[in-house]
Amino acid sequence: MQDLKGKLALVTGGARNVGKAVSKALAARGAHVIINYFHSADEAKRTKAELEAAGGQVTLIRASVARQEQVDRMFAEIDERFGGLDILVNNAANGALVPVDEITDELLDRAIDTNYKGGLRVSRAAAPLMARRGGGSIVTVSALGSSQMVMANYLACAPAKAAAEAVTRYLAVEFAPLNIRVNTASAAMLVSEVADAFPRADEMQRAIVDATPLGRLGTAEDFAEVVTFLASDASRWITGQTVLADGGLTLGATLLSPPALTDPAASVADAHPADAAVTSPEAAPATAPEAAPEAEPAEAADERARAVAEAVEELFDDAGPDDIAVVGMGMAVAGANSPSEFWQLRITGDELFVPVPEDRWERAPFFSPDTAAEDKSYQDTCVFITGFEPEEGSLDGLGDAADHELTTMWLRHSLVQALDGVKHDADDRYSFLVGYTPDGSQHLEEAGVITGIRQRAEEIVQDLDVPEADRAKVLAQIEETLNERYWRGGDAPSRFLPHRVGQLAMDGVLPGTTELQMVDTACSSSLYAIDIGIKGLLMGKHDIAVCGGAFALAPRGTVLFSKLQGLSKRGAVHSLDADADGVIFADGASVIVLKRLRQAQRDGDQVLAVLKAFGSSSDGKGKAIYAPNAAGQDLAVQRALDGDVSAQDVDWIIAHATGTPAGDLAEFTTLRGHFGTERTSYVTSNKSLIGHTGWAAGVVSVIEAILGMEHGTIPHQYRFNAPNPDFHLEDSKLEIPTESVSWPAEEGKVRSAAVSGFGFGGTNAHLIVQEHRADEAPGARAAGPLTPPTDERIAVVAWSAHVPGLDSRESVRSWLTDGGAAAESSFGEFYPAPSFNKVRLPPKTVRAIDRCQLMILECAHDLRDQFTDFWEEHSRTTGVFVGNMGPTRAAMLYANRCYLDDIAHALRQKADGAAPGALDEVIDRLRERVRGQIPPSNEDSFPGMMPNVISARVANYFDLKGPNITLDSGFSSALTAVETACRYLRSGELDFALAGGINGNSLREYRTVLADLFGPSFEEDKDLAEGAFLFGLATETKAREAGLPILGYVDGLTVDGGRAAGADTIECGAETYDRSRYLGAAGGLALLDALHRPAGRVAITCGQGEATTRLQLTVTGAYAPAAAAPAADAAPALVPSKFADSAEYAPGSPLQVRRRVPVLTELPAAETRERIPFLPQGVVVLTDLPDLGASLRHLPKDSLVLSTAKVDVTRPGWTHLAEVTPETVRAALDAHGLPVRHVRVVTDLNRSAPLPRSLATGSSTLTALHDALFLTLQARFDDLDTEGSSVVGLLLGAVADEVPHAFAGLFSGLFKGAFLELSKALVFALFTAEDGPRKGALLAEAETRLARTFPIVYEDGGTRKGYTLVDEPVELSGPTEARLNRDSVVLAMGGARGITAEVVKSLAEHFGPRIYLVGSNPLDSYPAEVFEGDDETFAATRQAHIRRSIGAGKNVAQANREFDRMLDARAARRNIADMEAHSGAGRVTYFACDGQDGKAVEAVVAKVLADGAGVDLLINAAGRNRSASIKDKNFAEFTAIRDLKLRSYHNLKRAFGADQPRMWCNFGSLLGYFGQVGEPDYASGNDFLATAATYGARSAGQSEFTIGWTLWDGTGMGANELTKAYFQRAGSYSHMAVAEGTHHFVRELHAPYRHPSVVHLGTAEEATVERFYPGYPSGTGSPAAGGTADRGFYLREVISADRDEAVFECAFDLETHGYLNHHLVREAPTLPGTFVTEIAGEAARFLAPDMQVFAYEDLEFQHFLRAYDGRKDAPKRITARVTDRTEEVTTVEVRISTDVVSPSGVLLIKDKTHFTARVLLRAGFPTPPRWEKWDESDAQPVIDPYHAPASPVTLTGPFVSTTDTRLTSQGKRATYRVELPAGDPVWSRFTAPSILLDGLARTGVLNLVDGHLVPIAAPLSIRRIDLYERANDAELVERYGSLELYATPAGFNMPGSDPDNRFVAATSEGRVVAQMKDVRATVIGYVDHLTGQFYSPEKEPLTEPATAVR
Q: Which stretches does UniProt call biased (Low complexity) (predicted)?
């Protein structure tokens, strides 16, 4: 029925549950439905896709009905786009289901704002639009509990709903004159997520069902019909009414009737009925009445309560895959010892700015009111922690010393506080990341002064002309004075170094293996500590990240900062105030504890908030390095807002705002550009209250944001009167609150705060913090841009070194490799000034800054010179990461200088008159010496001494915009810097990173401070060493794209309790003084050493205390001494060039199969069948979950549960299979006594096989369950192979972040086989992230209704996905470094025969590695004669062997098997000999070993590892198969075939332990991916290898992959003549040649990006798959001939094809090309001209499959294509021909044509041309150009003529792709933004961005003719189109969100014969994605810009659109 056709309906809250059902019902009846949503973005998109797939018209609009401004915006959009409205359904709702005593005003307000006020707002806004159309219908959704009856726990919602019903009656009267009807549709409880959220939901639902005459709950679909009736004209005489649908509940029958004699049959399977229909009770055979149920035991009730609680928690768990939870926090700041005290302080305020306390330092020697006074501060007021009360027990581990370092205590206190209540396990992996500087410790500062002054004084005193006794007395006096005055720094000063502060703070609190990093980016340090911690969590490296910062005041910093004139002269911070005059620093420490949100929820932690997005940047070039830079800050803010959190979502910005006028203005300028443009956002800074806590400031603000959410308050700005007028506050909606602002939690809105940190030196950070809403439904909040890092390898592509005494790269190499001259220890007392051409800084600045900053610039210059173009191209995405240990040289020298007056004052106070004048002379000479070593402090001194400016100096000097970070982890600092850089590269934030280590501090006094850190090799007189080592890092993909040399790969960094040993280990810790004396650069020197070693794996280790930091590398040997002059027998350094060929494996031998990559893709949710309950009558449930009974309490009475685990229930139908055998399973089924029509498998993979442990141990419970499933299918095969039967697997905990559980393949393989053999039954397995059986069962039940091409479905985060295959050939462009050489070790399981032996022989031939083979055949046990003679002669002895065997008592079969084993042994020996011929004699070792024998495997692996440094490549290839159907397969054979794969894998994992192979390759099979009749065991084993490798690569970071081979011709399975003949007759396989197989393997081994699972298919395989799974993997259900998986959308049928030419046909009808209904030309669906790019591109790539389309030339449009409904025209012919093949570019000419045939069948025109194009292809894409943004101050908005109603071209849906069309003096502008459903069967298959190109062409048309007419044009030709990346429109939207479109020139020159124009699509950062040049078109009319009227090409106004084509 289409009675609503032509109607426009708005459904608020229409994406989910009841709203979705209403939207669906309205669309089914012809209405165009506008779905309004707010939180449910993903559900809205899926609902839209589902309705459109069913033929509906849907528009999405996001708005909260609880906010008037958003309602206004929504209706303005409806008015603009549609001009009216016919139907409104007020469905959006909000409310809490709580008891009376838990109701708060906030809960009532939330319900009223949405249910009552929201509905009223929307209705009032809708009425004018309805009145324009002559009337309409408004339907408000309500519930029975609101007015008619009382419902338990509904009081918080009911009043608002009752008010909404009252509104209905009043509006019905008010709107009646407008012919608008207003009614309420009310319902009793419906099956929904809301129903399940009620307390005691099951009992409540049973009570309602029992009281309902119709005997069930209603469904959303039932109720939607009521709503639709009221919306339609069928209810045209009804208004002001409440229509109730309740199944008869309110008839009250149960109140006036006696109790029923028997309980009705349970109607709900499982328990959690969200989105599930409830079956009515079926009539059961007459039976004796059942006894009354016994009372539920207390423990069972508790378990049930827990299950319900877990289900509700699952329901409201909105965790996105990458949300980060804050689960703990602690702090110590002035005036507060905890977060709660801080909040009280923040609300009430206090005066904390005080003069320096006497116990910290004496003020006078450091102070002068004269701002120009040398080495003095003009301000002696700061903010100090004075009332510190440590958390109980927090300092117990620090000993009894009275001089505990301040920041150590504060950090430890904060850490203990933050961890209180946080759940942690013994095997949790921790990181401790602390924002910190060596300049923020008064103890360390004084320790340096003591040692520095003491040493200088000793030298001076020894030179005095006084008696020895006087000298001794003076020295004693100096020593005593220093120790008394600076008592903090005297004892064991190394404990004050940053990394030791971190270690001591966590000692005994966190495990010793915690990864420690002290992060220094100045004031943004603690925010970067958070970001680095987040990355560690997302990459799976850590389970808990503890992030914080600490800072303690000391005199030197105050003095030096005052030289910047940055301190407040008034002695207080006035952030954001017009009277602000500077900053005041403060003591402070703070810590937060982070987990991944899902982990926190599983652990039961209190989630305080979630971190959604982080933006980082460097200022790059600017004014002085210390000057604030608004552009740099803006970049950080923009990067944080690039995700799903927009600036308009942020309520509160906690600004950096330090109170310096310039800094506050720069920051506010940045904020004004993003926030407060549409709604109010509040801006505050806590520094006016507690001062600037420096390196802790960011986390302090994060804690404040969390506290604000907890207390529902944004605190007022302290010490604020009026804003700086330059803020222009009046021009924005930003507010600085002078009173605290209420900030309550709101339904439908997530509170968000932003925290800024802008580091001194230009390192910027911006963090988004959101509240965690436990009451939100799953997916209610979009995920932020915290993207999990990829597992791509990071390549070292360059190095530079700057060490004293060695002035060239050659001299450095000589030092490292051949004993050349060694580097000197120091550059001397004064660093050699660099030339101005190299360092363009004023000489005064050069003298004032630390030498580290100059040293690192030297290294950076060297790196830039190695690849200048790449450097410049990627400057915006280049970061700098430098390891440094402790204070800089300048910092220590400036401390000495600043303390001179204080020292003199103290010495004179202590003077006792000995040696008159001697003390004065010492003081004078000391002053002279100290001042001679460093110039007077000036504005450059503070940044000049700071460690963070080492990295910042590089970013500033070279204009780099990625983050710059200095890291301090002690001697491992450089290693930490490299690892941190890898995190940023893997996250995709950076393209290039500079990382390394530096030391410029070789001062003697520093050596004294460090003395107790060094081991026995330390010598007092041995100098520290200066040096800088910097390395270029990039992802392997980026390095290869840019042609950068790859020197090695960073495999990862770990911290453990062991020590590494062996030739491949380089130690750089304290005990190896030759390296450790380089301090922070020690790891850099070790890394440089590693790069100069032979190819192989190298571990750089750094032992510090009990823990060892280990950086694993794989080096290519590019700089090894042997690399310069390789030995004659050395393995080649490069992969032989023949393997680069992607078309042929040998000359004239084209490849028969192609590499395909499985990719999880969202599946369309099309309903095609009736739902089958998850637990239907007679179901057999198989499980290994002992507690499943708690969730399956409502099983049908005739069901059977077979549990492989001991069950915790004792009731009929539950059986424990203590042993799984054919006999026990059959006996249990026979005892059941009923036919088995339905089987269900329920398990939780996470519980049954915890990862990663189970990879090594296996899972006996899962294999037993697997056995039980097979035996059940076998025993009841005939029952199940009938119509209406079903076999469903529900595998919980089976996927996380789109990565299947490692054991998923074990079951998916069996289900694929069952699907193929049980052809009449419904067979599928659902692998879900859910871990609750109730919710999982409902998902599986819903899945029974949906269409599937393939029987395996994954569900993760509410998204339904399946694997499809993507054609992705390996691309080896240019010379490729070999990953194996003669030093490599290869271990091959099953490697002496079959395809494994062929692969290993190829490796031996080309790379010559050391080879170990493992096989089951004991080759050495045979007599010598077995290996003599040729094969023919030996084969002739078979009969004689049989006779001898029979004589020995054996039968013929045994004798034949023995003889076959001897034949196998002969083949193995031959293969070994072939390998040795290449690898060398004695370099191939064979072990006889059964892969299933764990101890034997361990022994073999131990022997291999004992021989060398490790295994570089493991080939796990053991396997066998024997085909037999499930019904006939022997159980022992089933387990043996499966377990050979499983157990071998587990045994290898366990045997290798911590020494896993560098590359692990499993040999799988195509049968594992697709399944095969007769192969349930083989498919299970092979599919397990695929999912295990996927888990290993994606989640565990290992280089593991599985190749799904097809049949090899003549070897392996293909060696069996009968098998070969069978498959050849069937045409099932391509019979790939051995040479082709080895070609594929070598290419796979060297793939730039290796996928964990790949399969190989040829034409025969594709046809076979098509027979098994019609439409797979395209998923269309209409397969193209040949079944090619990825041939393309338009290449429907291959007519003919050879290497250089192919012809295809494609029918254009609306059944297949329904998307053209959105592109109408004169109401006819017409193909846009730019879609020729997709057709031509697909055809070209068919002929050049390994290449990318990067350009199109000379596109000609002669006759456009139209599609007609119900009319089948002749198919269009697509002809592609290669016209040129060069080494780099292939050119393909493409022509689209058709035969024109009359209705009577007469051929009218033969081969009429529609379009022609030339396609250019190459291996990769060219480097994209940059596009500078235009000045659009003169921009004039202009109508897009193609969107005008009068236009002859009508665009809807995805073709409405451009917005904000406008004209500027430079040209035309628009923004490309399009909504495409994920996994859409059309757009997801495109390879070109055709919609983008269409929008780009339309942008080029924009122009104003005669001042008011905008042309409409049809394209005639395009000279050239350039593409710069491979992406279709869906991928572009996912990647960028939107693109900016530019068209030049400003005029309109397209109609000319020789147009000169350029149209460009670029990212917001200026990266060009695509461009078109010289588009020629013809004008077909105009649209009046002002009136919208259509004009003819002659500019005559027309009332009807003219004919047009595009």
A: 265-295
Last residue of a domain, one of 1764, 1794, 1820: 1820
Domain that holds residue 1110: 794-888+946-1124
Report the C-alpha gap between 509 and 506 in whole angstroms.
5
My answer on whether 1411 and 1334 are in the same domain is no
Tokens of 1188: 């499943």
Contacts of residue 254, defined as CB under 8 A and 6 or more positions apart, other chains included, come to 210, 211
The residue annotated as part of the active site, out of 499, 1546, 1651, 1719, is: 1719
pLDDT, one tens digit per residue, over 1468-1503 is: 999 998 898 888 888 999 999 999 999 999 999 999
The answer on pLDDT for 326 being more than 70 is yes
Domain count along the chain: 7
Residue 1845 and residue 1791 share a domain: no
pLDDT tens by residue, 1311-1348: 999 999 998 999 999 999 998 898 999 999 999 999 88
Helices (H) and strands (E) in the chain, counts: 59, 69
Give Cβ neighbours of residue 159 (< 8 Å, ≥ 6 apart): 108, 111, 112, 146
Give domain status of residue 941, yes or no: no
Element (H, E) at 128: helix 119-132
Q: Is 1472 helix (H, G, I), strand (E, B) or coil?
A: helix
Strand ranges for 964-1064 from DSSP E: 964-968, 992-999, 1027-1035, 1048-1056
716 is catalytic: no
Q: How far apart are CA 537 and CA 531, in angstroms?
A: 10
pLDDT average, residue stretch 411-433: 92
Radius of gyration of the chain (CA): 38
Arithmetic mean of pLDDT, 657-673:
92
User: 1112 with 1097: CB under 8 angstroms?
Assistant: yes
Same domain, 346 and 247: no
User: Is there a domain that residue 354 lies in?
Assistant: yes
Q: Are both 1839 and 1803 inside the same structural domain?
A: no
The number of beta carbons lying within 10 Å of the beta carbon of residue 1926 is 15
CATH number of the domain residue 1278 falls in: 3.40.50.720
DSSP state, residue 833: P
In angstroms, the first-to-last Cα distance of the chain is: 34
Residue that has been written with the tokens 């393939």 in this structure: 1350
For the stretch 1015-1035, pLDDT in tens is 655 566 678 999 999 999 999
**What letters, b where the CB count within 10 A reaches 16 and e where it falls short, cover 594-633?**
bbbbbbbbebebebbbbbbbbbbbbbbbbeebbebbbebb
**Strand, coil or helix: what is 1081?**
helix
Q: What is the pLDDT of residue 724?
A: 92
Residue 1994 banded pLDDT, cuts 50, 70, 90 = confident
- The pLDDT tens digits of the residues spanning 1960-1987 come to 999 988 999 999 999 999 888 899 888 8
Does residue 1894 carry a catalytic annotation? Answer: yes
Query: What tokens does 623 get?
Result: 């004014």
What pLDDT does 865 receive? Answer: 87
Same domain as 1194, residue 1078: no
Torsion of CA 1433, 1434, 1438, 1439, to 10 degrees: 40
1242 and 1175 co-located in one domain: yes
On whether residue 1333 sits in a domain, the answer given is: yes
pTM, two decimal places = 0.53
Task: Please indicate, yes or no, if residue 1398 is contained in any of the structural domains.
Answer: yes
Which of these is catalytic: 196, 1089, 1894, 1984? Answer: 1894
> Quick one: average pLDDT of 1719-1740?
90
- In 3D space, the residue among 654, 441, 436, 440 whose CA is nearest the CA of residue 549 turns out to be 436
Cβ-contact 694, 796 below 8 angstroms: no
Please report, for the domain that includes residue 1991, its CATH number.
3.10.129
Q: Give the number of other Cβ atoms within 10 Å of residue 1780's Cβ.
A: 11
Quick one: 825 and 766 in the same domain? no
**For 477-487, how does the pLDDT look when each residue is reduced to its tens digit (9 = 90+)?**
888 899 989 88
